[in-house]
Amino acid sequence: MASLGIPQNTIAVLQKHNFHIQKKYGQNFLIDTHVLEKIISSSGVTKEDFVLEIGPGIGTMTQYLCEAAREVVAVEIDRKLIPVLAETLADYKNVTVLNEDILKVDIARLAAEHNNGRPVKVVANLPYYITTPIIMGLFERHAPVDSITVMVQKEVADRMQVGPGTKDYGALSLAVQYYATPALIANVPPNCFLPRPKVGSAVIRLTRHERAPVQVADEALMFALIRASFRQRRKTLVNGLCNAPELHLTKEIVLESLAELGVAPAVRGETLTLTQFAEFSNIIGRKQRSQTPE
Ligand code: SAM
After folding, report:
1. Whose CA is nearest to atom 10 of ligand 1?
2. Contacts with 276 (C-beta within 8 Å, 6 or more apart), sequence order
3. Is cis: bond before 195, omega within 30 of 0?
4. Which of 63, 125, 138, 192 to mutate to test the pocket of ligand 1 (most atoms within 8 A of CB)?
């Protein structure tokens, strides 16, 4: 039975190991069993599943995952937590702890070694200082992942879900929605963690699309256009794109492409939908190719 997830037991483990919380690693440990149960049930993990946990900390959620899943690999960067995890997870035979940086882990290899190459489920209370690189890394590197159920800052969960015309809409919204369907599971207040974070949190589940919702000839070009469009929010799309040296776009190409897309030349990036960004990148790509000498 999972023993962690209540304040007294977490404090006892930290004291026993004389463990000092590392702010630089975004360590906020969960101390609420209801929240833990909600994460596990909403993740849809069953005894058939292989789960990748990012940042197990002292092993609180890991205990719950070991009970729900067939097998768990937990990747923890802080080497001082490894002896703690060896003790808190001693009763579980279906878990492997890797002392590594998740941004450097080859997830395709983990899936091959532990799950016959099938997509894995990711479940985590993420370290907030690298939420976006972790999520984007899982998607952009085309890691074999079928769902990601994670605790993130409330504000980041909002950004993942919104559409055009809202202040939170941006590159993260478009990327998440291109790869997955986001669903908000629960809002979580600071008192569910030790130490308490300064911001509110939320659990969000991202279910990977089987097929992308839009057809894009060149994903890298679309995301480069999206990033450049939101870099200078106050500028029109034309100015934002022409000021992005990495794109090498002339004003003529951008204006012609916007006309072909059927939107006004003074449009701002934050009003375009994912479908429009996809079509826009297809038009720009075609024009660039037709101008490149054979
Ligand atoms: N899962 C635990 C819980 O819910 O109580 C701890 C969550 S805590 C918010 C984030 C964890 O991620 C910490 O244990 C931290 O050391 C770890 N971490 C931070 N950066 C990491 C990285 N780059 N790779 C792997 N783990 C990391």
Report:
1. 127
2. 261, 263
3. yes
4. 125
What does the chain come to in residues?
A: 294
DSSP 8-state symbol, 211: S
* Ligand 1 lined by 132 (C-beta under 6 Å): no
Q: For 177-220, how does the pLDDT look when each residue is reduced to its tens digit (9 = 90+)?
A: 999 999 999 999 999 999 999 999 999 999 999 998 999 999 99
pLDDT (tens digit per residue) in 208-266: 999 989 999 999 999 999 999 988 777 889 988 988 888 889 999 999 999 999 999 99
Beta strands in 3-78 (DSSP E): 29-30, 50-54, 71-75
CA count, 13 A, side-chain hemisphere, 264: 5
- Longest CA–CA span in the chain (Å) reads 70
Query: All domains of the chain, ordered by start, with CATH?
Result: 7-208 (3.40.50.150), 219-291 (1.10.8.100)
